[in-house]
Design goal:
Layout (H helix, E strand, L loop, with lengths): L1 E8 L9 E5 L2 E3 L2 E7 L3 E9 L6 H14 L6 H19 L5 E9 L2 E7 L3 E5 L4 E3 L6 H7 L30 E6 L5 E5 L1 H4 L4 H10 L3 H14 L6 E8 L1
Antiparallel strand pairs: 1-4, 1-12, 2-3, 2-5, 5-6, 6-7, 7-10, 8-9, 8-11, 11-12
Length: 242
């Protein structure tokens, strides 16, 4: 049995919520959603429209709508095709004014495939540790990977919000694809940067381990991020496999 819970809300500095989440065929850019399923497959996602793009919220919602419309026919090739087609459409129709980053997870028979572009994230909580499944496509992450700065400097770096890849942007894209397993008693977490730009990995893990209730997990992640000063849009999505 899979249990799902997600919540998204507009940041205090935002005029609208550019975040969006997907749980199977349900998409939202406001509020929360709770569900469960006995099926052996699911599709989830978090997309964050770029604030610098006037149509960022449209781009985030449009991508997840296209994925959801094919929920019952999804394959690896189809998901990649949808993502690339959305990139081409947004670029052609909106001239880089509709861009989004995203993390999408497709699960089938305990095997998960993560599709990622930008600075949203996917984590997996196991009995032993919290594993970050994605790598940010940001200027600061490039500095960290090159050894120019330490990981702890990411939270206060003046250019921490500079994203190097986005869907619908002017440049070509390289979609990161990660394969993993999702086993009983594990949890998946998807977040937008309004969460993980303000909470360190150990803080996120501590919140998840404090309760097995995924609704409490999400609410506590959002509240702690606000407490730490987050003014960005905030989205967290948790899946528990029992």
């Amino acid at each position: 049995m899979y249990h799902f819970y997600s919540q998204t809300q507009r940041g205090s500095k935002s005029s609208k919520n550019d975040d969006c989440f997907l749980i199977n065929n349900y998409i939202a850019q406001n509020g929360s959603y709770k569900a469960q399923s006995k099926k052996n497959s699911f599709i989830i996602g978090v997309a964050d429209g770029l604030g610098s793009a006037p149509k960022g919220s449209f781009a985030a919602n449009y991508l997840l709508e296209q994925i959801s419309q094919h929920k019952n026919q999804l394959t690896h090739a189809l998901i990649l095709n949808i993502i690339n087609n959305v990139h081409a459409y947004l670029g052609k129709e909106f001239f880089c004014k509709a861009s989004t980053v995203f993390t999408i997870v497709y699960s089938s028979n305990e095997l998960i495939t993560v599709y990622h572009l930008g600075d949203t994230r996917a984590y997996k909580l196991t009995k032993r540790n919290l594993i970050q499944l994605t790598n940010d496509h940001t200027y600061v992450q490039e500095l960290i990977d090159a050894g120019v700065i330490g990981d702890g400097m990411r939270y206060n770096h003046p250019y921490k919000n500079v994203v190097k890849q986005s869907l619908g942007g002017k440049n070509g894209i390289h979609i990161d694809v990660y394969n993993n397993v999702f086993e009983p008693d594990e949890r998946l977490l998807l977040t937008s940067d309004g969460i993980h730009d303000y909470l360190k990995k150990e803080e996120i893990e501590g919140i998840l381990r404090k309760s097995t209730n995924i609704q409490e997990n999400v609410i506590n992640l959002i509240n702690k991020s606000l407490e730490k000063g987050s003014s960005d849009d905030l989205t967290a999505l948790v899946v528990k496999y029992m």
